[in-house]
Design goal:
The complex is a heterodimer of chains A (341) and B (321).
Chain A lengths: L17 H26 L14 H10 L5 E3 L5 H6 L4 H8 L33 H14 L6 E6 L6 H13 L3 E7 L2 E2 L2 E2 L9 H9 L3 E5 L3 H16 L5 E6 L17 H8 L3 H11 L4 H23 L25
Parallel strand pairs in A: 1-2, 2-3, 3-7, 6-7
Antiparallel strand pairs in A: 4-5
Chain B lengths: L2 E3 H15 L3 E5 L15 H5 L4 E3 L4 H13 L3 E5 L10 H8 L2 H5 L6 E6 L24 E3 L4 H13 L4 E6 L7 E3 L13 E4 L4 E5 L3 H12 L3 E5 L2 E3 L3 H11 L2 E4 L9 H11 L9 E3 L10 H7 L3 H13 L1
Parallel strand pairs in B: 2-3, 2-4, 4-5, 5-7, 6-7, 10-11, 10-13, 13-14
Antiparallel strand pairs in B: 1-8, 6-12, 9-11
Helix pairs in contact in B: 1-6, 3-4, 7-11, 8-9
The chains are: A alpha/beta (341), B alpha/beta (321).
Chain lengths: 341, 321
């Protein structure tokens, strides 16, 4: 890292203990190492299609994933690989999707982070951002109807907040008072469009509370410890029946919208602000200040590197999808007679 | 015999489904206290309570999305859209999320969306449309169009049981006009199966929805030996039933209320042309409204919609070929 921008350590929030900090560190590191590896594969032409990563936003993904309890459900978006990992999705599962393997989460039918896993209660991302806001509200509605102490969580960027779907979903969450949590990934850009050209009032937390009466706290989304504390509290309020909750996590999307976008439109002075706010560096420094020995951090680094490499090896050994199976599963209950010939 | 209307059959199907399965709940605009714009849910709020019959804000994309999320969690939501024309609003979430999720991820979405379609009630361009054709061919969806009292009950019950998203295009013109013996409680009409509503040897009318009663009346008045095939499910299409009837009569008239370049006609005619060409004694015919939105003025709407008289003329032309 450049010496003129030394990392600022994560906050030392007393309610977030050592185990949680280490768990968060493993998650942010796993996403970082996975995405660095996957980006290299993409540039080598070994991953087809497009490539998106969450560099600079890993802490939000990790914090939200870890804040959920067993039985909770989540709809992650483009930049939340650590959320998948926190819910039990493996690096092999994820690599199988990036590589389009036949035994991956979508069996080669969708690529990169466009996947979910039924067995992990993770709903697959769709590209029409905003759509998963009402879907999350509906899952939470099911929990409310059945009096189950479960929570549904999704993310939306400030870009998605401009869609009608987001408004309709947030409005329904409020009207129905369901246990849903919305984590706003305020990463400052929707592709190339800065927040100020997407909306007049750019204070998202104020808008979420003022517009939809959903409590919303703003947090530095590069600080994994603080973000975890705030999202966890929101999740538990929702679980206790206090209705929908939201968190505005402020970050900067360090890379472009996708690998084909060099994000040259992001001004240098904004980049300078975030140079000392790399989520991985900030949390590592926090752990050092907490007294973790360098050897312990090295072990974590080595284990997470191995987790990523082992996942990649497993995915590379996986079979490709069989074109003969393409029409399988279009319907859960296919027509008894063939629909077309 | 207890005679009920098409609308009463729908009401009975909803009430029976609510009684039989606690996972079933209804949501839509004005379906609770009011009982729905057409009365399909009248009294259900009082009988089953606000947890089973949910009034929603005007946000079709939002509450169809919420139904998808609830279905993901294993519930059996039944959505009412106030008019089928309003399916433009949740079109994205139906096609993007409801239709593609099982194929992508194996997550089943047992979701039913009911909507009153069709004209004859002077509804004009936004309250009388037959937009089922937008979903014909969409992988992952099932599209049903009941044309009888029995199927109004049976297709709705089957849709609610079904593990896939099913769009039910009810015909609002039939709601109070069509009356028949009450379907037995628990009756199911299989999704994906057409039905020979009238046996015949000289020509086949392939139709669905409001076309069924029109075709039957035309066949009766014409006095020819006309077969009427009620598709019941327009997607996925029961192509075997289509070809079996074509093989029997060698003359086909497709009748639909949707404008001629939409609806199910294109798919039916392509199956007939590609797979039944050698069975035909005449070019396959189409009787459907012109390619315009549904007009309001009685003079215009009456000219627009297929009638018994116009169907008879279309059949006469086909038989004379």
């Amino acid at each position: 890292m450049p010496t003129e921008h030394p990392p600022i350590p994560c906050s030392s929030v007393p309610t977030v203990g050592r185990d949680a900090r280490i768990a968060l560190y493993r998650l942010v590191l796993r996403q970082r190492l996975f995405e660095e590896r996957a980006l290299a594969l993409y540039r080598q032409g070994r991953i087809a299609g497009s490539f998106y990563d969450g560099r600079g936003q890993e802490a939000v993904a990790a914090a939200a994933g870890l804040a959920l309890a067993d039985g909770d459900v989540v709809c992650p978006l483009n930049r939340e690989l650590a959320t998948h990992f926190a819910r039990g999705v493996t690096t092999a599962d994820a690599f199988r999707n990036y590589l389009g393997r036949g035994d991956g989460p979508t069996r080669g039918r969708d690529g990169n982070m466009h996947f979910g896993m039924k067995t992990r209660d993770v709903f697959p991302l769709v590209s029409m951002l905003g759509d998963l806001v009402p879907v999350t509200v509906g899952a939470a509605l099911a929990f409310k109807r059945r009096h189950e102490p479960r929570v549904a969580l999704t993310f939306l960027g400030e870009g998605a907040l401009a869609t009608g779907d987001s408004h309709e979903g947030l409005n329904l969450a409020g009207v129905w008072q369901v246990p849903a949590v919305f984590v706003l990934q305020r990463n400052q850009y929707a592709f190339s469009t800065p927040t100020a050209r997407e909306m007049v009032n750019t204070r998202l937390a104020e808008r979420i509370y003022g517009g939809w009466s959903i409590p919303c706290e703003a947090v530095d989304g590069t600080d994994a410890v603080e973000t975890y504390d705030v999202v966890h509290a929101a999740v538990e309020r929702a679980r206790r029946g206090l209705g929908p909750q939201a968190v505005e996590a402020v970050t900067l999307r360090i890379h472009g919208h996708a690998a084909h976008d060099d994000a040259r439109y992001v001004p240098q002075d904004l980049r300078d602000v975030y140079a000392s706010r790399d989520p991985v560096d900030r949390l590592r420094l926090r752990l050092e200040l907490d007294g973790l020995e360098p050897a312990e951090l090295e072990v974590i680094q080595a284990e997470e590197t191995e987790t990523v490499l082992a996942g990649l090896a497993a995915a590379e050994a996986s079979p490709p999808p069989d074109p003969a199976t393409l029409e399988h599963g279009v319907w859960a209950a296919p027509p008894q007679r063939s629909a077309t010939r | 015999m207890t005679a009920v209307t098409y609308l009463e059959a729908i009401h009975a199907a909803l009430a029976d489904a609510l009684r039989d399965d606690e996972r079933v709940f209804l949501l839509g605009e004005d379906i609770g206290h009011l009982g729905g714009a057409f009365g399909a849910t009248k009294g259900l709020f009082e009988e089953f309570g606000e947890d089973r019959v949910l009034d929603t804000p005007i946000s079709e994309e939002g509450f169809v999305g919420a139904a998808i999320g609830a279905a993901w969690m294993g519930e059996r939501p039944v959505v009412e859209l106030q008019f089928a024309d309003f399916v433009t609003c949740p079109f994205d979430i139906i096609v993007t999320v409801a239709a593609k999720t099982h194929w992508r991820s194996g997550i089943a979405l047992p979701l039913t969306i009911r909507m009153p379609s069709g004209g004859g009630v002077r509804g004009g361009p936004f309250h009388a449309g037959s937009p089922e054709g937008w979903f014909v061919g969409q992988p992952g969806l099932k599209v049903v169009c009941p044309g009888t009292v029995e199927d109004a009950y049976g297709l709705l019950r089957a849709a609610i049981d079904d593990p896939d998203p099913v769009l039910v295009f009810e015909h609002k013109g039939l709601y109070r006009r069509l009356k028949a013996e009450a379907p037995p409680p628990g009756h199911r009409t299989p999704i994906g199966r057409a039905y020979v509503a009238r046996e015949g040897a000289d020509a086949t009318v392939i139709t669905y929805g409001s076309g069924v009663t029109t075709a039957l009346a035309a066949a009766d008045r014409l006095g020819a030996d006309v077969e009427v095939l009620d598709l019941r499910t327009v997607w996925p299409l029961d192509r075997e039933a289509v070809l079996a009837s074509v093989g029997k009569t060698s003359r086909v008239l497709v009748l639909q209320e949707a404008a001629r370049s939409t609806g199910a006609a294109g798919l039916v005619l392509s199956v007939v042309a590609r797979e039944g060409f050698e069975l035909l004694d005449a070019p396959p015919a189409l009787h459907a409204p012109p390619d315009t939105p549904v007009p309001f003025a009685p003079e215009l709407e009456d000219a627009y919609l297929p009638s018994v008289d116009s169907t008879i003329r279309a059949l006469e032309e086909l038989l004379a070929y």
